[in-house]
Amino acid sequence: METLYKVEPLTRAIEAIVAAGGSHEREARLVAENLVTANLLGHDSHGIGMIPRYIDAVLEGGLAPNQHPKANIDTGALLALDGCKGYGQTIGREAMQMAIERTKRHGSCIMTLGNSHHLGRIGHWAEMAVAEGFVSIHFVNVISHARVAPYAGRDARFGTNPCTIGVPLPGEPPFVLDFATSAVAQGKLRVAHNKGVKVPLGRLIDPGGNPTQDPRYAVVPPFGAMLAFGEHKGYGMAIACELLGGALTGGGTWHYDESSKQRVMNGMLVIVIDAKRLGTAPAFEREARLFLDWLRKSRPAPGFDKVRIAGEPEREMREKRTRDGIPVDDTTWEEIQRAADKVKLPRERLQKLATA
Asked: CA–CA separation, 349 vs 330, rounded Å?
């Protein structure tokens, strides 16, 4: 069963849980807005279902509320930051603000961010840059539980390691490509498990290395492993994200035995470019329009209504869920209520906030 929640009441409910976990008012609001926005765009994997994990991480000490990024190196166009184990929704926002400000001054900025707690939907950070007219490229690694197997291997050795590219487009909303290098985001398998539905073949293997459609092998023991998208190609991208987002940032790579701890640490390499400073803006605008017009003239394949580019499905989902409400399955809501229990927020108050 699912229940539909309106955006603002649901945001207030999640905000109350985060605040009860020790976050100041501003941070609690930023975390809640970020998570609910992910649901609003259709990315339930990075939405409010993360709250139980966040609260456990706070209580274990792996996530520190009310932190701010610390600059280890700041030469203007080169920025190296430490996230201090803080909420990624705060750390990521402040880090991107710093990178954007330096891009305005210098035309570009290369930023490394290590030791941040879960940064959430990486597309959110690319959207901050494209809103200023900047191109933004992100390589991210994940240190929590190894869940993805290398190509030709059967054992999980790294995380879902996302990559994101944001490009502002002339006269229309931006291109925002935001994807896990695994065949599917781990959170989507959690959602499938909570809903009791199978997943397509090609996404998971069981503990024996055999293909499976049962999402439990990505959520509860005995664990199997997720697969990278595109066989060796996605696997190669995952390694690039580990090396650039993890090793280069100083945040660390995945090379540990399985842990029961609930923290989710991210490292992120960000490249922000002011395209206008390159002197190619007129050519870019002309060629982008010509290419997109050409692309969209493609005849739709059977079962599709039209050709879309990255960012369009999310904008369509936002419109729908803003109008109709955000669906939350009963299992996920029960997990969120248990998280509220752990920080002494009464369930009655949580439910009242969510449905007001």
From this structure: 18
CA-nearest of 91, 84, 5, 86 to 48 is: 5
Give the Cα separation of 251 and 114 in Å (integer). Answer: 4
Quote the tokens at residue 4: 């539909």
Q: How far is residue 59 from each of residues 56, 64, 263, 331, 343, measured CA to CA in Å?
A: 5, 9, 10, 22, 9
Instruction: Assess contact for 165 and 177: CB atoms under 8 A.
Output: yes
> Where residue 336 sits, what CATH number does that domain have?
1.10.1530.10
Residue 209 to residues 122, 148, 217, Cα–Cα distance (Å): 30, 12, 11
Give the burial class of 343: count Cβ atoms within 10 A of its Cβ; 0-12 exposed, 13-18 middle, 19 or more buried.
Answer: middle
Domain hosting 50: range is 1-66+325-356
| pLDDT tens sequence across 297-337 | 999 999 999 999 999 999 999 999 999 999 999 999 999 99
Q: Residue 297 carries which DSSP code? A: T
Tell me the pLDDT tens digit for each residue of 44-75. 989 999 999 999 999 999 999 999 999 999 99
**How far is the C-alpha of 45 from the C-alpha of 219, rounded, in Å?**
13
> 222, 217, 226: which is closest to 184 by C-alpha?
226
58 in a structural domain: yes
* pTM higher than the cut 0.90: yes
Angle formed by the axes of helices 330-342 and 7-20, nearest 10°? 30
The answer to whether 40 touches 32, Cβ cutoff 8 Å, is: no
Which three-class secondary structure state does DSSP give residue 143? strand
Q: Is 163 part of a structural domain of the chain?
A: no
Identify the residue whose tokens are 């995380």: 159
Q: How many domains does the chain divide into? A: 1
Residue 294: count of CB within 10 angstroms of its CB: 9
Tell me the CA distances in angstroms from 60 to 51, 261, 354, one per residue in order: 14, 7, 27
Residue 72 lies in a domain: no
Residue 71 inside a domain? The answer is no
